[in-house]
Design goal:
352 residues, alpha/beta, Aspartate Aminotransferase, domain 1, Aspartate Aminotransferase, domain 2, disordered C terminus, 2 domains, single chain, seven-stranded mixed β-sheet
């Protein structure tokens, strides 16, 4: 195991020192379990400060649990979720929504991970026909699995499209903080203020040890969530330690500071590698991800020094992620490594 910071995933980063301090402060005495404690109450109030006074919020262990339980609150088994073909719920959750909810996913082909009303429309078919699943939810990721970011106007358009058809808009916000920092808006403006009905608000990828929040714009959709969370094995007995992390994340703009730094490091990496012969950036660098194609024969060599994932083997497309603790030195060293591996005489520090 290497202590070197890599570019594989923001999941690989450690915890932010302010988060660890918050956990340590919560580690005092006995309090009631399962969320009936002052830390959980305070963290929920913090969420309401950022997302709106009327929202309901619940903490769970991980992103898959947050997505599945949030969707389940909006769905019945004969209903369906329209999502991007790259969506985490489609590609990276091992069929959890289908198995646990019993619903069907309707993936939509696209180029950049983003949906739009005109892309969703062909999936809204068979309404009222007992032989067809009934589309009920449009699910988007913010930022997307391709690192791109929806504007507020794009989210509004999808919310209006869904609501006009008696449907709901769900947001996988595993990297919501990065998206909001990229847009320069608050968390409410990027979510429920734009019409999102249920948000999975990620903390793990932005400096938490572990924990996600499920946030409901309409409390009526949350009426049975306590029971769903328990049945799904997502109810933490020592809830205070998850809640304390969110309290820290939403205090003094830690969420924005950490996310904005990760975004800047991704932008710097894109700047440094753009122009290296053999490297082609394939997507806009809106948040903290850089997608690029590199010569297939160079990938293994690069991974020996800096681990990262191959996103699309057929295209030789890789994903490089920056984190809250990525440094400029990390970026410069990685860019120089790429240039060296590809035999480029170009200095890694040159600009666009």
């Amino acid at each position: 195991m290497s202590a070197r910071r890599g570019f594989a995933s923001d999941n690989n980063a450690g915890a932010h020192p302010e988060v660890l301090e918050a956990i340590a402060r919560a580690n005092a005495g006995h309090v009631r379990a399962y969320g009936d404690d002052p830390w959980t109450a305070r963290a929920v109030e913090r969420i309401r400060e950022h997302f709106g006074a009327g929202v309901e919020a619940f903490f769970v262990f991980g992103g898959t649990g947050a997505n599945v339980l949030g969707l389940e609150s909006l769905l019945r088994a004969h209903e369906a979720v329209v999502c991007s073909e790259y969506a985490h719920i489609e590609m990276d959750e091992c069929g959890a929504p289908e198995r646990y909810i019993g619903c069907k996913l309707l993936p939509v082909p696209n180029e950049d991970g983003k949906l739009a009303p005109e892309l969703v429309t062909p999936r809204i078919i068979g309404i009222g026909n007992e032989h067809h699943v009934q589309p009920r939810v449009v699910s988007i990721a913010q930022s997307t699995e391709y690192g791109t970011v929806y504007t507020r106007e794009e989210i509004h358009a999808l919310a209006d499209f869904a609501h006009a058809r008696g449907m709901y808009l769900h947001m996988d916000g595993a990297r919501l903080a990065n998206a909001a920092a990229s847009l320069g808006v608050g968390l409410r403006e990027a979510t429920v203020g734009a019409g999102v009905d249920v948000v999975s608000f990620g903390g793990t990828k932005n400096g938490l040890v572990g924990g996600e929040a499920v946030i409901f714009r309409d409390p009526a959709h949350a009426s049975e969530f306590r029971f769903r969370r328990k049945q799904a094995m997502q109810l933490a007995s020592k809830m205070r330690f998850i809640a304390a992390q969110f309290d820290a994340l939403l205090t003094n703009d830690l969420w924005r500071r950490s996310a904005a730094h990760a975004n800047r490091m991704a932008a710097l990496l894109a700047e440094r590698v753009r122009g290296i012969p053999g490297v082609m950036i394939t997507q806009r660098v809106d948040a903290n991800a850089v997608f690029a194609t590199v010569p297939r024969e160079a990938i293994a060599q690069l991974q020996e020094e800096f681990f990262f994932y191959v996103w699309n083997e057929e295209r030789s497309e890789v994903r490089w992620m920056a984190s809250f603790d990525t440094t400029e030195e990390d970026v410069e060293t990685f860019a120089a490594t790429i240039a060296r591996a590809l035999g480029s005489p170009r200095k890694a520090s040159s600009t666009i």
